[in-house]
Design a protein that fits this description.
Structural class: mainly beta
Largest sheet: 4 strands, mixed
Helix content: 10-25%
Strand order of the largest sheet: 2-8-7-4
Distance between the termini: 134 Å
């Protein structure tokens, strides 16, 4: 009887410890994002004109996005997708904005060249020239 109780106690102990052996499953690490780019770079955004959405291209899984320095007034950076949208409201000299795509394993960056330029003049015309003799 003592032997049966001891065997039962050992069986319960092994079961409570997960059965022993191999240690359990492990999830492989997520690869570091790479090859980040914005196909439209460099960008000339026109003052007062809605910018066509800028969509990043990246290899791998991205969990967070960041940009530095902040974009010109009127332009927005989506920290969930890395998309850039908006209508610029201030002329801005060409600058490089560092976009960072990250996950738990690491990150990759891209230098987005962007300027806000004035709109071309509209309604410009010249009077007709009439030849005289």
């Amino acid at each position: 009887m003592k032997r049966l109780v001891a065997l039962l106690a050992i069986s319960l102990f092994v079961a409570a410890c997960g059965g022993g052996g191999g240690g359990g499953s492990t999830t492989p690490p997520v690869p570091v994002p790479s090859d980040l780019s914005y196909p439209s770079s460099p960008v000339d955004a026109t003052l007062g004109v809605t910018l066509p959405e800028l969509v990043p291209v990246v290899t791998g899984t991205v969990t967070t996005w960041a940009i530095s320095p902040a974009l010109p007034t009127g332009l927005n950076f989506d920290v969930a997708s890395g998309h850039i949208t908006g209508t610029p409201t201030v002329l801005t000299a060409r600058a490089t904005y560092t976009v960072t795509a990250s996950n738990a394993t690491g990150n990759t960056t891209f230098g987005l060249s962007l300027a806000v330029v004035p709109a071309a003049p509209t309604g410009l015309s010249y009077p007709a020239i009439v030849a005289t003799k």
